[in-house]
Amino acid sequence: MTLVELALYFGLLSLISLGGMPSVMPEMQRFVVDVKGWLTPAEFIQAFAVGQAAPGPNVLIASLIGWKVAGIPGAIIALLAFCFPAAVVAWWVAELWDRFKDSPWRRTAQRAIAPIVVALILSGGFVLATPGSPDWRLWLIAASSAAAMLLVNVNPLWILAGGGILGAALL
Amino acid sequence: MKEEPQETRFQRVNVAPPKTLGELFLGFLSIGARSFGGVLPWAYRTMVEERRWMTPADFTETIGLCQFLPGPNIGNASIVLGKRWFGLAGSVVAFLGLMALPFIWVLALFALYNDFSANPLVTSVVTGVGAAGAGLFVGTALKLGRPLARKPVAVVLVAVCFLLVAVARISLVAVIPAGLLLALLAARRNWL
């Protein structure tokens, strides 16, 4: 039952995840932690951290949540539920999109979506850095990492490693 | 990436899509296997530079579309490119190739982490990594948002959406349709 619920919800998130995984992180956290209580806030940020540190698309955090909820079948189903509806959309839209390359409504749609995607990704960062009550140490690590990303051109893996070191020192 | 101008000049002649499903699978497998710290650079290196399946311009165009669509960007790219080259079978093969190894990696890493999660130092390190990952989101948002900073309506829209989603914790299922509708109206009036 839990698995069905998880699959349906992730399927819905898949369709509204404009701009990819980061934009639905706040919603995923809200549902999985606040509404369902399947994971604690700390477990959620840790699953996210493991998902970031492993290679591959960050969508894999979906499979970690699925695993926590229902073992290996949960991991597979959560991942597929998150990917499949969006894949169907991509399958159909790709051709249309090419055909309307120069059409004005395509440019309008792109300009409209940009601020929404920016707000959602920003919210994702805020929610992940604020599990439970605000903690200045997590905010400091997140702010340093954002600054490092914007100022230095390095593989993000080094920034994550820096976050691990700061975590060991501060937390 | 070096000698970029020359690459661009000659690659129209050189690029050729994968010839077999096996080649497609191995290509996406190698993207997934190596993509520590982000998939995009590795997708570029594999498909444009190493295997020469597509031109840089073609790559940028495809990724641009996939960033705009819902769903994981590179996952969508595997669907779109697989379809273009081999139809449905191509989409399935490319997607499975991309996800197979990272899926095993991430579960193995998480299992390992669970064994050590009683150790407070391990928990601190992993939480620190998570916070840094959150910072990468903030950095990405700032990067993407830079061109919007000069448009007051866009700034207000970003701020309101952020307050509703991150602070008031209102469901995206409500915020996205309303936000998109307003944004479309604003875009049609050239405010965005």
Q: What this model shows, in words?
A:
The complex is a heterodimer of chains A (171) and B (192). Chain A has 171 residues and is mainly α. Chain A has seven helices and no strands. Chain A has helices spanning 2-16, 21-35, 41-53, 61-99, 104-128, 136-151, 156-170. The longest helix of chain A is centred in the middle third of the chain and has 39 residues, at 61-99. Chain A starts with a helix and ends with a helix. The relative contact order of chain A is 0.12. Chain B has 192 residues and is an all-alpha fold. Chain B is globular. Chain B is built from eight helices and no strands. Chain B has helices at residues 4-14, 21-34, 40-50, 56-68, 73-116, 120-145, 152-167, 172-188. At the A-B interface, α1, α2, α3, α4 and α5 of A face α2, α4, α5, α6 and α7 of B.
**Sequence stretches where pLDDT stays below 50 over 5 or more residues of chain B:** 1-11
- What is the helix tally of chain A? 7
Average pLDDT level of chain A: 90
Main sheet summary of chain B: none
Reconstruct the topology from this structure.
The complex is a heterodimer of chains A (171) and B (192).
Chain A (H helix, E strand, L loop, with lengths): L1 H15 L4 H15 L5 H13 L7 H39 L4 H25 L7 H16 L4 H15 L1
Helix pairs in contact in A: 1-2, 1-4, 2-5, 6-7
Chain B lengths: L3 H11 L6 H14 L5 H11 L5 H13 L4 H44 L3 H26 L6 H16 L4 H17 L4
Keywords:
heterodimer, A: 171 residues, globular, B: mainly alpha
Compact summary:
The complex is a heterodimer of chains A (171) and B (192). Chain A is mostly helical and 171 residues long. Chain A has helices at residues 2-16, 21-35, 41-53, 61-99, 104-128, 136-151, 156-170.
